[in-house]
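Notes on consecutive records. When two proteins share a document, each keeps its own sequence and its own token line. Never mix them. Below: protein one.
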Amino acid sequence: MIYGHYSLVPWNKVRWPNFTPVELACRHCGELYYDEESFDKLQNARTLAGFGFVINSAHRCNLHNARIGGAPNSEHKRIAFDISIKRREKKKILQSCQQAGFETFGFYGTFLHTDTRPRRIWATKQGRITWNGLVQ
């Protein structure tokens, strides 16, 4: 379900204590795609990792996705998570996401993309270097 602004979302602070609607909403307009399964998996991954996640991008409205050059059918137009690996244990982030039930991963130079689609894996050229040994 899409909410026109994150402030309208019935956010469960107990269920998702380490994330807020604002950090998962579109950076352009505040629109948020509300998906409990995705939020549960993200919270579980964060709990398993034992340290905070910095979310670079989650939901994007159509306009924002187009302006930043996102794929026309980007999962970010629903909900996906680009988790920063800067100054973080990237292997631990990947493992915790896998243990939380995520199967789709995009490996980039500065972040890990994940979403709830069935198994799909890709890596950019820079991502292959950054994630050397972890990209299959």
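Protein two starts on the next line and is unrelated to protein one.
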Amino acid sequence: MAFVDVVTANIRLIILRELADTNGYTSNDSVLQAVLDAWGQRLSRDRVRTELAWLVDQGLITQVPLGSSGASRVTLTERGLDVADGNAFNPGVQRPGPVR
């Protein structure tokens, strides 16, 4: 696996785990961008939205636009929670370590 693929898989896991640890399993793309930055993954808003779109396509999250700003509300799905917890595997998302 190429380095860029490893980093991308890590970004996706960080997003899923953040949503899993959030009250109501819901956040927004702005908060997720800040969380990624805190984990050492400094991304443009466009890149965050690209990764969110990929996660939607995989059925791991849902995304609802918030007004005309381009911001969105992101919610973890049941399958996304399984992947975040390591109970299911989705190619393109890093598997979590054995201790969480």
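For the record: The two ends are 24 Å apart (CA to CA).
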